[in-house]
Design goal:
Length: 232
């Protein structure tokens, strides 16, 4: 009965949050798995060394952890990886938690309209067959930093968003990413319609966003990611 209840929850979450997984493999090998697809994340392109990167965090529904990952690429010269936690054995709940941080880089220089779409397969955090139950929402002892993520819907016009770390925390790094939701990658025109930049001053991150009319026809977001240290 417990397994059936978990399956029912997974099916309900799937119906709300996930579309068809297509040819992606984030749920391969799992009896119970909720596929979650992110937006098409725009990858900055340049010939500078090191090549610029973009990071995007994709989270599971409550009560689930990341069991598998995949991505769709618009170009073979995009290098997409994810951040894993240290630990042994390498498996869900040890190497992954309830969210996955993807990093994308165009390794061959400028690529027109470069983007990738991250996918995660989410499995129950506890009670999933014979897997050892794990704590999904607490960082392992000694983990020195925490990520804070905000995803902002983009509308035509100019917008400014300001974010800081939590009380007692200090800012380690900041980044932002532009994403377009949909089954197909954004066009070069849609990518060019969104300009986002961020600046850091006295521990406060200011993100400036300018968007054209093209974003009114597609769900567009800017994700702001702060890595912070310290705190309680």
């Amino acid at each position: 009965m417990k397994l059936l209840a978990i399956a029912a929850v997974a099916a309900a979450v799937l119906a709300v949050l996930a579309g068809p997984a297509g040819a992606t493999n984030e749920c391969r090998g799992f009896q119970i798995c909720v596929p979650v697809a992110g937006p098409w994340v725009v990858v900055p392109t340049a010939r500078t060394v090191p090549r610029p990167i973009v990071q995007y965090q994709l989270a599971c529904p409550k009560g689930f952890i990341v069991g598998g990952l995949d991505a769709e690429l618009t170009d073979r010269d995009l290098d997409v990886t994810f951040e894993a936690q240290l630990g042994s054995p390498v498996n869900p709940g040890v190497s992954t938690r309830d969210a996955a941080l993807f990093t994308g880089r165009a390794v061959a220089g400028p690529v027109r309209a470069a983007s990738f779409r991250p996918h995660i397969g989410c499995i129950p955090a506890a009670g999933g067959g014979g897997r050892i139950p794990t704590v999904a929402h607490i960082a392992p002892p000694g983990h020195p930093s925490a990520r804070h993520v905000w995803t902002v819907r983009v509308h035509p016009g100019a917008h400014v968003v300001r974010k800081t770390c939590g009380g007692g925390e200090s800012l380690v790094s900041a980044s932002h990413a532009v994403g377009f939701y949909g089954t197909t990658p954004p066009t070069a025109g849609q990518i060019a319609a969104v300009h986002a930049s961020h600046a850091v001053r006295n521990g406060r991150v200011t993100v400036s966003i300018r968007a054209g009319a093209a974003v009114s026809r597609v769900r567009t977001v800017v994700q702001i990611l702060l890595t912070c240290a310290g705190g309680t």
